[in-house]
Design a protein that fits this description.
heterodimer, A: alpha/beta, 23 helices, 60% helix, B: 2 helices
């Protein structure tokens, strides 16, 4: 069933994308392969867009969703007749590249067959589509960052989950992540031979952060496909003076904005470049309207439910819905995102230094070791620069110049104004960089013949060798599950940190209970209503760092109808001097007669899904006794 | 004018760059050597 739903959704994506291309009269302007690749990328966004409409109307039901996907399938006919595959004519080293791709994609299939285990996905990327499928409605923003809309990509997961369950959703995330490789391949084919294009696609698909995020619910890999289509279409709108290409660029850029607030930087950067043409008014208008239609609905949704389209960015500037946010919470939010997430000064010299630091030895908050961009950018840099130098007289006419301008503009906006310096937030721009670096380096190699080609082959051998090994290491846990026939619970117990209490909670708590927790890799698994407490992102329960208003905390729990609290800590009762009050509050609830311990479950805190390690802790479940509790009564 | 000597230099410099960057890139993962070997069932 899951595979049938996957096929249905992939065909629907291709169909909706083809309809968009045909609607703009552009399908005949692209080669078959390019048409297919662009259609798939656009289709991911269009399915998320259609699921938004269904969810907003409270109609995300099985029949309506199936009908929505089936309506897209017919559009696949617009792609035209496929060109015959020319696999048998591949050269020796092209077969090697195909083998690298087969290794990567094959292991990703094995990953997709396993239950989800990435913490962010369990916190919200997969939890949101699960709740959408259960309720038929879109979520309303009540929490910054994790709960915040825009959620265009996550809504594209909801149809798969609704019709085919978890397996269909994980297979869809796998397949939708491959779209970026396909778009990159056909983008490169415009400029370089098939072997180099295959190599570029393999570099993109084996990039550590793509491998880490592609198969999970992380949105960036899918956004990267939007960015590539947007930048390429923007460049063509300038070269061909065609407002329809500008509209297509706007649609793809709008999908990015509909998937992540950072996408607004991309809309700004891409829009700015689109305006730099003779027919700027028509192109700018087409770009702007398309971007607004593709991504603007999420900001309207946010505005309607919070009062702030960019919740919580405009706190203090626009009126908010009562009870959602407050000054103290906003200060905690700003402190969280102004400190540890941005360790380099946001100045031009550091913007220049950042890619080198992030490649060679980024601070832990960059997450560049585990989920970085790999060595390719630095390895190929001198060859790309030499290629640029050799083609310096033709640069102004290069079709990739607008792509470079967009990439640079968005990077600078992100570095100087962005909320975090994590490398994976740059992933949407990475395939653009790979395309440009590869084309420039190949120009250099062509100039020097075999003498220039040898170092470039070394670059690719090192990059794909290391990244391919990384794919293998990352996949060991998933392969083990398959080989040993591991049960779902055993696998999750091994892979998900602090998973042990989940089966107990689902067995003992029901629809009339309400659990309070602050454990990220858990909401997706919970079958009962719950409230998530976050020290910086939610004002629902005040657990800000340094806050110690226990009476207020208890009053909030009472008001929310919380019946149980989950505490994961080394010991219970936890150390009361901790700055983060969530755990100490648990001990205080028992001490003050408001709660009793109903379960104490040994649990494993997993340090790394790939490399293992970690420590033991205890999950303590408290049952609140509101009749006996005198704290916080008004 | 491009001579065989130039070509050799380009290749040699290019390969030296690749080797240097590879070592510098891998150096950040030096502490992971033991866990990776253990993952592979070696050591």
């Amino acid at each position: 069933m899951a595979i049938a739903v996957l096929l249905l959704q992939v065909l629907a994506a291709a169909g909706y994308g083809a309809m968009a291309l045909a609607g703009l009269g552009l399908h005949s302007r692209l080669s078959y392969g390019e048409r297919l690749a662009w259609a798939l990328a656009l289709g991911i966004g269009l399915i998320g867009w259609a699921a938004f409409l269904l969810g907003a109307a409270g109609m995300l039901t099985k029949p309506a969703t199936a009908l929505m996907l089936l309506a897209g399938v017919g559009g696949a006919a617009l792609l035209g007749r496929p060109q015959p595959l020319q696999l048998l004519r591949l050269g020796g080293w092209e077969w090697l590249l195909v083998a690298v791709l087969a290794w990567t994609l094959g292991l990703e299939v094995i990953e997709a067959m396993a239950p989800p285990s990435d913490a962010d996905s369990l916190m919200y990327h997969f939890d949101i589509p699960r709740r959408m499928a259960e309720t038929g409605h879109l979520p309303k923003a009540s929490m910054a960052v994790e709960g915040i809309v825009p959620l265009l990509v996550q809504t594209s997961y909801a149809p798969a989950f609704l019709l085919g369950g978890e397996q269909a959703m994980t297979l869809w995330t796998m397949a939708s992540a491959w779209a970026v490789g396909l778009v990159a391949f056909f983008a490169l084919r415009h400029h370089v031979g098939r072997g180099w294009a295959l190599a570029g696609a393999a570099v993109v698909l084996t990039t550590p952060t793509v491998v880490y995020g592609g198969g999970s619910g992380q949105v960036e890999t899918r956004i990267a496909a939007f960015c590539l289509v947007a930048a390429l279409a923007a460049a063509r709108s300038m070269r061909e003076r065609d407002w329809r290409m500008a509209a297509l660029a706007g649609m793809a850029a709008g999908f990015y904005a509909g998937a992540k607030i950072l996408g607004l930087f991309f809309v700004a950067g891409c829009g700015l470049v689109v305006l730099m043409q003779r027919r700027w008014l028509a192109a700018g208008f087409a770009f702007g309207i398309a971007a607004l239609l593709a991504g603007g609905q999420w900001y309207l949704w946010n505005f309607l439910h919070t009062g702030d389209p960019f919740f919580p960015m405009l706190w203090g500037l626009v009126p908010y819905h009562p009870g959602l946010w407050n000054d103290a919470q906003h200060a905690a939010f700003l402190a969280e995102w102004s400190g540890e997430e941005k360790v380099l000064p946001q100045t031009p010299p550091w913007a220049l230094a950042y890619p080198f630091i992030a490649t060679l030895d980024g601070p832990p908050i960059f997450d560049s070791g585990r989920a970085g961009l790999g060595p390719y950018g630095l390895l190929i840099l001198p060859f790309a620069l030499a290629g640029l130098w050799s083609a310096r007289r033709r640069l102004a006419a290069s079709p990739l110049l607008p792509v470079a301008a967009i990439t640079l503009a968005v990077y600078l906006l992100w570095f100087h104004l962005g909320p975090s310096q994590r490398v994976r937030h740059l992933l949407p721009l990475w395939p653009l960089a790979v395309v440009m670096l590869t084309v420039a380096a190949v120009r250099c190699a062509e100039r020097w013949g075999m003498a220039g080609r040898l170092p470039l082959i070394a670059v690719l051998t090192v990059t794909l060798g290391l990244q391919g090994a990384g794919v293998g290491a990352f996949s060991v846990s998933f392969v083990k599950r398959l080989v040993h026939g591991e049960s779902r619970e055993a696998f999750l117990g091994r892979m998900v940190t602090g998973f042990a209490p989940v089966p107990w909670l689902n067995a003992h708590l029901g629809a009339s209970d309400r659990l309070l927790l602050n454990w990220r890799p858990m909401p997706y698994f919970l079958d009962m209503p719950f409230v998530f407490a976050h020290h910086a992102h939610s004002a629902a329960v005040d657990v800000r760092v340094g806050s110690r208003d226990f009476d207020h905390y208890v009053a909030q729990l009472r008001e929310l109808g919380v019946t149980h609290v989950l505490i994961q800590s080394d010991v219970f009762p936890p150390d009361e001097t901790k700055d983060q009050p969530f755990e100490p509050y648990g001990g205080m609830l028992v001490k003050r007669g408001c709660a009793t311990v109903v379960a104490s479950i040994p649990t494993s805190l997993v340090a790394s899904r790939t490399l293992g390690g970690g420590s033991q802790a205890t999950a303590t479940v408290l049952a609140l006794d509101w009749a006996a509790c005198t704290v916080g009564r008004r | 004018m491009r001579t065989p000597r130039h070509s050799f230099l380009v290749t040699a410099l290019g390969l030296a760059w690749v080797a240097a960057v590879t070592v510098a890139y891998l150096w950040q993962f030096r502490t992971l050597a033991a866990p990776v070997l253990s993952l592979l069932g070696v050591g």
